[in-house]
TrEMBL record:
One of its GO terms (biological process) is regulation of DNA-templated transcription. This is Polyhydroxyalkanoate synthesis repressor PhaR. It comes from the Bacteria. InterPro entries: PHA_DNA-bd_N, PHA_reg_PhaR, PHB_accumulat. Signal peptide: none annotated. Pfam families: PHB_acc, PHB_acc_N. It comes from Candidatus Thiodiazotropha endoloripes.
Length: 151
């Protein structure tokens, strides 16, 4: 599935090339929430500005209602910029969010199952995912994974 192309014009308007109409930032947010993969380009320079627009959507969402990020969490994220672990931290966050999304899908899928079995399966999957992610994290940071003791 290819990304849905959105063009941003100098008048700050967003144009959905699939629907051939202008959309608001709020409508773009709804597309994303609905599972659409998007790519936003500047109509003049053809530069990919997807990240900038996504950050703008997050900023707008954080300004109203119930924010997702606390001031402490944002301060901690800022501290990673420019540091040696910036890339590793970004990868870690991406994998964590991916794992969280997978868990949510599993919970929805297993709602009809016996709750004990569903939770046991989820816990087992979580342990494997976290173990794999930790291994990748430490490997990327230059640490070797601990060897099992031989008996």
């Amino acid at each position: 599935m290819s990304d849905r192309l959105i063009k941003k014009y100098p008048n700050r308007r967003l144009y959905d090339t699939e629907q051939s109409k202008y959309i608001t930032l709020s409508q773009l947010r709804q597309l994303i929430v609905g599972g659409e993969l998007i790519k936003v380009i500047d109509s003049t320079t053809e530069e990919d500005i997807t990240r900038t627009i996504l950050l703008q959507i997050i900023l707008e969402s954080e300004s109203g209602g119930n924010p997702l990020f606390t001031a402490n969490m944002l301060s901690q994220i800022i501290r990673f910029y420019g540091g040696t672990l910036q890339g590793i931290f970004g990868n870690y966050l991406e994998q964590s969010l991916g794992m969280f999304t997978t868990q949510q899908e599993q919970i929805r899928k297993n709602m009809g199952e016996d709750p004990f079995t569903a939770m046991t399966n989820l816990a087992q999957n979580n342990m494997k995912l976290w173990t794999d992610m930790q291994k990748d994290f430490f490997s990327a940071a230059g640490f070797s994974s601990p060897k099992k003791e031989e008996k």
